[in-house]
Every structure is written in C-alpha cells, then in structure tokens.
Write a structure and sequence with these properties.
single chain; alpha/beta; Rossmann fold; 6-stranded mixed beta sheet; 6-stranded parallel beta sheet; 12 helices; zinc ion binding; NAD(P)-bd_dom_sf
Length: 329
Amino acid sequence: MQAWRVHELGEPARVMRLVTVERPEPGPRQVVVRVTGAAANFPDVLMCRGLYQVRPTLPFTPGIELCGEVVAVGDEVAGIAVGDRVLGGSSLPYGGFAEYAVLEASQTFSAPPALDDAEAAALFVGYQTGWFGLHRRAALKAGETLLVHAAAGGVGSAAVQLGKASGARVIGVVGGPEKAEYARALGADIVIDRSSEDFVEVVKQVTDNRGADVVYDPVGGDTYTRSTKCIAFEGRILVVGFAGGDIQSAALNHALVKNYSIVGLHWGLYNAYDPAAVTECHSELTRLAAAGAIRPLVSERLALADIADGVQRLADGTTVGRVVCTPAA
C-alpha cells in the first residue's frame, strides 16, 4: 500500500515521504480500515515537528482521525465487522494518511449516515473536543455568549457549530476576510477579523461591556492574555491548546479579582478515564448531525499524493476550513 511516512522530525512538507509499505495487520483489540477520508489536524503538524505530547516512534504515518471501511478485525474485537463504515482515532504508527490504517476498537465508532466520508473523517477529534469542552468543562448554557478563537480552524469551527446547537450566541475570531466568510457559513452570529479589528473592544461593545461568558481558546499566548480583558463575571476561559506557539502564564490574581475560571481541557484523557462518556458524546454528535445542527465544512478534499502540501499549509496557517485526504476517491 501507499503511505506517508515520517522518518525524521521537521516541517511536514520536508519530512513526510510517500512510500510503498506492507499493509498493517490488526492486533487483538484493533481493526484495519481502508481509508476513505483522513482529516488534517494541528497535532499532525506538531508530531511531524516532534513537539506534540504524543511522540510516536519513527518512522510513523500521521493522520490522527479518519473514516474508512473495516477490512480486518482482531481476535478480541466484538461489535465491529468487516465491511462496517467507521470513524475514529488512528493507532500510530499507522495513521490515516495512507491507503490503510489501524484503529483501536475502543476508539472506533459507526460513521453517521448523515455525513459523507470526508465529513465523517473530520467529526472525531474537533467535535469531541468541542463537546467535552463546552458541556463537561465550561457548562455552556443557552443564551450565554461564547467567544471562539481560531473559529475557521479544526477545533474552532466545531466549537462554533456546537455552541450554536446549544443555544449560545457565538462570536468567532478569525484572521482574514476568507476565514471570516467561512466562520459566517458555520453559523457564527458575530465574526471578528483580528487582522483589522480588536476583538476585546468588539466583545465589550456587543455585550454592553459585560464580556463573554465562555472563551474557547485553542491559540494561547497573547490571545489568552487579551481574552482575560473581555471575560464576563463568573466567566470560564477554556484552555484548549497553544496553536500560536506560546504557552502563557496565567495571572491568578486577575482571575481572583474578576471572578472568572480558567479551565483546562485535554480531551484525550477521557479515552482512558471515562470511555463511556466518549461513546455517549459520539451518540450525541450523531444525533446532531442527523438533525442538521452540525456538519464539518470540508474546504479541501485532497488526493493522497497531495496531503503533505495540505498539512504544511495547515502548519503555515493559510488553510481555511477542514482539509481532508480522500485516498479512495
């Protein structure tokens, strides 16, 4: 089979190489799928650079989430059969940027019929992260104001749709006119282009100086620091990631005097500590997809040969929306 492999660490376009390798075999609790869609995510970039908290042994194939058709199941797998259309998180080193990939059975779920393969491939990481962040960690309520940074990115775009589905007023922050149009298509009530507007001032203006009840921040650094200037009384700032490259230090005296919460979210831990909640979340996401409340907006469907370029453009911050590799197309 053909697969992109990383043999050394660095920028994706430099270190990803398309090679021919043997098709993997499933372990006792694994499944092998023919990949029909694999979404590019920022963790793929960080793993190529060697900067992610998960550091797979070299060489490895990136692509942490995917959709595919089951072609083989391990001896201890129950409830999953050859021919099933599934989605989930890949089991590295056999990631999704290949013709075939491996998934742990515990992280393999039925793909929602309402979504095509490319859309289903983009449902797992971003939407699970958004659902746990907004509902389990921040307890977002209908009628509250949600501020989403990087609203045209993978996890940000999911948070916009999930926020709208929960009845919140959603403010999306993006960088550039093209990304602003994408955020509006996602359903954001207010879109702020940070390249030409000060999001702190806009948030204060549209909330009558009250501020946002929940801030969804996958960027970090100065974005986090400035978000503390427009957080509401008893607001919650969700620390989701540090795509901006800088890990800020929180001023706890500021949190004290303004009475807001700083809430961390590492969604991957739920797979170990509360897997039943992950299954429950997938059921809810499937219901929302069937109702038309959520749908990943896939902006690029790339052939297998082109995905390294897509991952590099994601790394450079020039992609808009979800970029998905479709090897079987």
